[in-house]
Design brief:
alpha+beta; Rieske Iron-sulfur Protein; 2 domains; 5-stranded antiparallel beta sheet; 5-stranded mixed beta sheet; 29% strand
Length: 417
């Protein structure tokens, strides 16, 4: 029997996500449901953030949207590529779940004072810097307007889809910053850009309503969801998003307790669920082309799965060590759903085959070895021993997400079995 989380319960937790500002004032939603917001005032941010590390955000362009407000309030018939009736209110008003505009960072060592080994984190690796976004924070903000290697990016997390995705924030020469619209489409976060007021679906980075960019897509930047200990081992110099956000939230509490229990119905999802698998079955999807998906259960069993994607051979890896952010009331106590990473399975044009390392040593973080040279590779796609030591594989964009949303956005998807 499928279990549906009651609408009022989900609305309450979504309201709690926008309940308290940095001055501690209580919103109307919090006043209406004080129980949902109790933890936001008790013990939030008790541990002082670590020493801040410099990482300036990129300047954004100005545009008519900043003066006119949301275009859907301005136009009777806004240009759209979808049925506007499919866009639903998620509960909070626009930016009621506040995006992080000027992110502050701390070292791995400082973050270790409040994160544990299995704490789920979203990792974005650039050429010169790696940034880590704890889901303990992203759950309450969903969007970070940021820069990687000096280039403008928007880093996003939709708890209802467990989709942690990053995109270039520049399109057609316009550098944008993004907010949360308070709307959902197919149970997925709908963003808006402040320059022109377009609506964007987070799952594909496509503008679905608006005049300026309708039908265009933001360029994807590969991301991966890992446990904190894993990225600490592979990237000890990474910058970790600090709880010094300018907002008071109960970082570490999960307002979506039990959401990823198989049998649940997704919130605000009006489409038919593809009947091949239950709605919140976890999959790892590859967004290129029609999309290929691998069931997480299959990946957990095999640990290494190889297949040909649209453009290149791919190797997909899994290892234990990441807590589900949507399981228990405390994020860090969620069940271990493991960690995934995907790469082009070639070095200098030569195809490599990989096999898992059983009982991997967490100290050196070697998770797989290639069968040709026996070199050891980490989930960062980096060889750390053997003939290929120092070699970096090219990362492939993946979506650690739920079947219901993957299948509705990629209805022709092939499921690797």
């Amino acid at each position: 029997m499928r279990r549906t989380i009651p609408l009022l319960t989900l609305l309450a937790v979504l309201a709690a996500a926008c309940a308290t500002d940095s001055e501690g004032e209580m919103s109307d939603a919090q006043a209406a449901d004080p129980d949902a917001a109790t933890d936001a005032d008790d013990g939030a941010d008790e541990t002082p953030p670590g020493e801040s590390l410099e990482s300036p955000t990129a300047p954004r362009d100005e545009g008519p949207g900043e003066r006119q407000g949301f275009f859907w309030d301005q136009l009777d018939e806004p240009p759209t590529s979808i049925d506007l009736g499919e866009i639903l209110s998620g509960g909070p008003p626009p930016d009621g779940i506040p995006p992080i505009e000027d992110p502050v960072y701390e070292s791995i060592a400082a973050a270790g004072d409040w994160l544990v080994d299995d704490s789920p984190v979203m990792v974005v690796r650039g050429q010169t810097e790696t940034k880590v976004y704890p889901l303990a924070i992203m759950t309450w903000h969903e969007i970070v307007n940021d820069a990687i290697d000096g280039e403008p990016v928007v880093v996003t997390y939709c708890p209802l889809c467990n989709s942690g995705l990053a995109f270039s924030a520049e399109l057609d020469g316009v550098v944008m910053d993004f907010g949360t619209s308070g709307r959902l489409w197919r149970s997925n976060l709908v963003m808006y850009d402040r320059q022109y007021g377009n609506l964007w679906t987070q799952f594909t980075g496509e503008a679905i309503v608006g005049e300026r960019f309708l039908g265009q897509q933001l360029a994807r930047i590969p991301t991966t969801l890992l446990g904190f200990a894993e990225v600490a081992a592979t990237d000890p110099g990474a910058l970790v998003l600090s709880r010094d956000t300018g907002h008071s939230r109960d970082y570490g509490r999960n307002p979506y307790t039990g959401y990823d229990t198989v049998g649940n119905d997704p919130f605000a999802f009006r489409d038919e669920v593809d009947g091949r698998f239950p709605a919140v079955t976890r999959v790892v999807g590859f967004p290129s082309g029609d999309g290929t998906a691998v069931l997480l259960d299959r990946l957990r069993e095999e640990r290494v799965v190889a297949f040909d994607d649209v453009d290149h051979p791919v190797t997909l890896w899994w290892a234990p060590g990441q807590a589900s952010a949507l399981d228990t009331a405390t994020i860090d106590e969620g069940r271990d759903v493991g960690q995934t990473a995907a790469f082009v399975a070639e070095v200098d044009g030569e195809l490599l085959e990989f096999e898992p390392v059983e009982d991997a040593d967490s100290d050196d973080a070697v998770r797989v070895r290639d069968t040709r040279t026996g070199s050891g590779w980490t989930l960062a796609g980096r060889a750390v021993d053997g003939e290929l030591a120092g070699t970096q594989l090219e990362a492939v964009a993946i979506d650690d997400t739920f079947w219901f949303v993957w299948a509705v956005f990629k209805p022709e998807t092939e499921v690797v079995s």
